[in-house]
Specification:
The chain is an alpha+beta fold. It contains 19 helices and 22 strands. The strands form seven sheets. The protein has a six-stranded mixed β-sheet. A hairpin with a 4-residue loop joins strand 14 and strand 15. Helix 8 crosses helix 11, helix 11 packs antiparallel against helix 12 and helix 12 packs across helix 13. The chain is globular, with a radius of gyration of 25 Å.
């Protein structure tokens, strides 16, 4: 009987170009191509082609986005480059090489295009929106949006010298390595303002023009306005409304949890270079926040004074500040009260980075306690569970001394609770999450989810391509935010199903996943062509992964890595009644033609220092 019919997992020394000979898992069990595997490969291809069409239509030969550039947070430089927010991730999943080439060109072009911008109503862009290739001054809600694709470029491009130098220089802006940008106070361990960048911290109140920029003549589709992009508005006429949107966004001095987003730069710099100063700074800064959060009863303060004390710029009222717990304002653009609290956006990103660098679950404990505090205030109205989104004086902008939880909504923070569970893998954290969708699938309750989710991704891709094809606008009627909803790339479902990774609705990005793949033949990140991967189960001490070669003629070789950054460690793999010891953060797999296997990996999570070096550049695991 042929060996492929008997079905076994054979062991051999890998004849692949790694730094050292490696263990190879040879899969010889026939497997008919599952629908999900065929859909994954077709979605990777279709995504890539759609991005190429987008680039051809909306980017010129210089890499400039075809729109009318303008400074501002409503439709400014961060929105323009955010258009490509998941293209580097798509490449790292297995998309075409052109994605990386287009991103590099578009990013270089973006820096030049917005470097040419000049403003008269704000000094922040009077000589360009960027200085030394980094935003002059902005808040990390918007700075982070503009850097989303850049944050993940190292997954595919870890040897790119321009990327390495930029990441080091950008991280250095928050480590006082640039004398022109003293953003960080190492004594009090604070980033000194909500507004920071290559021109340093803003140590005075902002102006509405800092937020909104100059008006430009013309009629535009304003994506951010209440009517949406369907309505064209004369910007010179609508400009006072835009100013009215930001009239209460002016408090800037002192630290804010949004600034924890800056740790993404230093974490990436560490993973690209191995220089421990970047790791040390991340932990110093996050640990300072850890202490402050403990001092305020487990609630993250949304203002920290220049002296390092919670609420230091507001007489001890830790919940105050722009984008804070009590940021209840009158928005003159929509002419109504608005509640805009972003306490979680930088908080989760920064503390997850500390977990990645240390494996210390006490960082997750901080996030859990914050959610516990919010859930302790829950209400049930008409059978619906409601949670507060705000804390302080319910009138916010008209302080009267009242302090209470308010603005109850049905938002149960499920995305943040999902992150907590995936980082802790504590079954008690799972109890708060509905067993639906992807989580339901991982729990064995939703077997049709992979195919259905991928079909939905195809539907959204078709819709985006149709909108792009029928788009009647010209560069003269588009501002930076208009094209955000035309980006065709669909990556959420692929990230979940292939990698066991998850992105919440927050826009400060790092890839936290259980697996990642490399193509050792083409020497690049991403799953090889003709290969399907499905993460079927996640546990604290292991994960189950099905791999299949949908090509009945040719074998496939791939490297399976434990974690996005090799932060986890494979202990062993079980298949077909055999358990094979591995004890390293990656394993080489050879899938014979038309063969596949369900592999049950035992692993230790957060056992290694994270790195962006590909496996062929690592001769041995680096332990913590």
């Amino acid at each position: 009987m042929p060996s492929c019919i008997r079905g076994f997992l054979a062991l051999a020394l890998a004849a692949v170009p790694l730094a050292a000979k490696d263990l190879t898992l040879r899969v010889t069990t026939p497997m008919a191509p599952p629908t999900w595997a065929l859909l994954e490969q077709e979605l990777l291809k279709a995504n890539s082609v759609a991005c190429e069409r987008f680039y051809e239509k909306y980017v010129d030969a210089r890499g400039y986005l075809l729109h009318t550039p303008r400074w501002g947070t409503l439709d400014g430089p961060d929105d323009a480059v955010e258009t490509f927010f998941n293209w580097t991730l798509l490449h790292a999943l297995g998309g075409k090489d052109s994605l990386l080439e287009m991103w590099r060109k578009a990013y270089d072009g973006h820096l030049l295009q917005y470097g040419e911008l000049r403003t008269t109503k704000t000094k922040l862009a009077e000589n360009g929106a960027y200085f030394n290739e980094f935003i002059t001054q902005s808040d990390w809600f918007h700075t982070g949006e503009g850097l989303r694709a850049f944050f993940l470029q190292g997954l595919s491009d870890p040897h790119n010298e321009k990327l390495i130098q930029r990441m080091k220089r950008f991280a250095g802006l928050y480590m006082n390595e640039d004398p022109e940008a003293p953003n960080y106070d190492p004594k009090h361990k604070v980033i000194r303002s909500l507004w920071t960048g290559s021109k340093g911290p803003m140590l005075h109140k902002a102006t509405v023009y800092d937020w909104v920029g100059d008006p430009v003549p013309g009629r535009f589709h304003l994506l951010h306005n209440p009517a949406g992009r369907s309505q064209m508005l004369d910007l010179m006429t609508y400009y006072p409304k835009m100013l009215a949107h930001c009239t209460e966004y002016l408090d800037s001095v002192g630290d804010h949890p949004l600034n924890l987003g800056a740790t993404i730069l230093a974490t990436n710099a560490y993973m690209l270079t191995g220089e421990t100063k970047y790791r040390d700074w991340v932990l110093e800064y996050v640990n300072a926040w850890k202490e402050r959060i403990a001092a305020t009863g487990g609630n993250v303060p949304t203002n920290v004074g220049l002296d390092g004390t919670p609420g230091g710029e507001y007489g001890g009222r830790w919940y105050k500040g722009t984008y804070g717990w009590n940021f209840t304002i009158y928005d003159g653009e929509i002419e109504q009260i608005a509640h805009r609290n972003t306490f979680d956006v930088g908080l989760f990103a920064g503390f997850a980075n500390a977990l990645l660098l240390t494996g210390d679950q006490s960082y997750v404990d901080v996030l859990r306690r914050q959610m516990d505090n919010i859930y302790a205030q829950k209400k049930v109205e008409n059978g619906r569970l409601l949670l507060p989104k705000m804390f302080g004086d319910p009138r916010g902008y008209k302080y009267s001394g009242r302090e209470e939880w308010y603005h109850y909504t049905p938002d149960l923070f499920i995305d943040r609770l999902t992150e907590i569970y995936l980082w802790s893998m504590d079954r008690r954290d799972l109890e708060r999450i509905p067993k639906e969708g992807w989580i339901g699938f991982l729990e064995g309750q939703n077997p049709d989810y992979p195919v259905r989710a991928l079909e939905e991704a195809f539907a959204r891709l078709r819709h985006r391509v149709e909108e792009m094809r029928n788009d009647p606008t010209t560069p003269g009627t588009r501002l930076a935010d208009y094209l955000l909803e035309f980006n065709p790339a669909q990556t959420d479902q692929l990230t979940q199903l292939m990698l066991g990774g998850y992105f919440s609705r927050g826009k400060l990005w790092m890839l936290h996943s259980r697996f990642r793949y490399f193509d050792p033949v083409r020497r690049r990140a991403g799953i090889p062509p003709k290969t399907g991967a499905l993460v079927e189960r996640l546990a604290a001490d292991g994960a189950t992964l099905t791999l299949v070669n949908i090509d009945p003629v040719n074998p496939v070789e791939l490297i399976v890595q434990a974690g996005a950054y090799a932060e986890h460690q494979f202990v062993s793999v079980r298949h077909g009644g055999q358990t094979i010891a591995i004890d390293r953060p990656w394993v080489h797999v050879r899938l014979e033609p038309g063969c596949g296997a369900r592999l049950e990996f035992a692993m230790r999570r957060y056992a290694n220092q994270p790195t962006l070096a590909p496996p062929w550049d690592r001769s041995r695991p680096v332990r913590k």
